[in-house]
Design brief:
4-stranded mixed β-sheet, 23% helix
């Protein structure tokens, strides 16, 4: 039995079997409208996830909390949503959103 997570999930995004590109699309859609401070657990079997998720959090301003104890073969990572997160493109969440030209 695994120890409980020090960061219990408010929201879980299941990315089992998805490559990080698709996982980030799903993650971005699921967290849209979620409150700052929400803890998100991301189930990610893509071997690149331990690198891509912290990088995405760094780019957006969300807080990467690290791996969560889970069942073997079911890697789970936690992040906390930030109030001042930087937006990303809906069709490419690994890119920052373009600045509004009207500003």
């Amino acid at each position: 039995m695994n120890p409980p997570s020090p960061h219990p999930a408010d929201l879980t995004v299941d990315g089992t079997g998805l490559l990080c590109v698709t996982l980030l699309l799903r993650l971005r859609a699921r967290i849209a409208g979620a409150a700052p401070g929400t803890v998100v657990h991301v189930i990610a079997t893509d071997p690149a996830a331990p690198l891509d998720l912290p990088a995405w959090c760094h780019m957006t301003g969300h807080h990467y909390l690290g791996p969560v104890p889970s069942d073997p073969g079911r890697p789970v990572y936690a992040l906390r949503l930030s109030a001042d997160a930087r937006p990303t493109r809906a069709d490419a969440p690994w890119h920052p959103a373009a600045a509004d030209p009207r500003r």
